[in-house]
Amino acid sequence: MPLAAVMTAPNQPVEVQQLPYPILEKGGIIIETLYSEVCGTDVHLLRGHLEGVPYPIIPGHFCVGRVVENRRAGYDVNGKLIQPGAIATFLDVHETCYNCWYCLVAKASTRCPQRKVYGVTYSGE
To answer: Where is the Alcohol dehydrogenase-like N-terminal domain (predicted)?
Structure first.
């Protein structure tokens, strides 16, 4: 069973928990985290300074990992299928709208109001 650092609630100690092995969804990739950093957002999450965070969460949205499984869904920047065993990193922001000012004009999808962010907007449950 994988281990993860989990923020259970604001202003509570981070706990290391055993979690069930994730179920690979269609179009998904499972990556075993090798390295992850703590950034300012993680500090704000721990202190409860961000609204709408679905605690418990697994922090760390800047990661490098080893691909464990790929259901023929993930391709690298050159269009090659990402193979199990490959070392990978990924953009933590996705599901942006492609229509707002941030997406179209500023080219800053990380600010899109519709965005989803690993380690910020997803619960660890």
So the answer is: 26-120
Categorize the per-residue pLDDT at 125 as very low, low, confident or very high, splitting at 50, 70 and 90: low
Q: For residues 57 and 18, what is the distance between their CA atoms, to the nearest angstrom?
A: 13
* Cα dihedral sign, 110-26-75-22: positive
pTM of the shown model: 0.77
The DSSP secondary-structure symbol of 90 reads -
Q: Which residues of 84-121 are buried (b: 16+ CB within 10 A; e: fewer)?
A: eebebebebbeebeeebebbeeeeebeebeebeebbbb
**Six-digit token string for 55:** 């605690």
Q: Does residue 122 register a pLDDT over 80?
A: no
Neighbours of 44 (CB within 10 A): 14
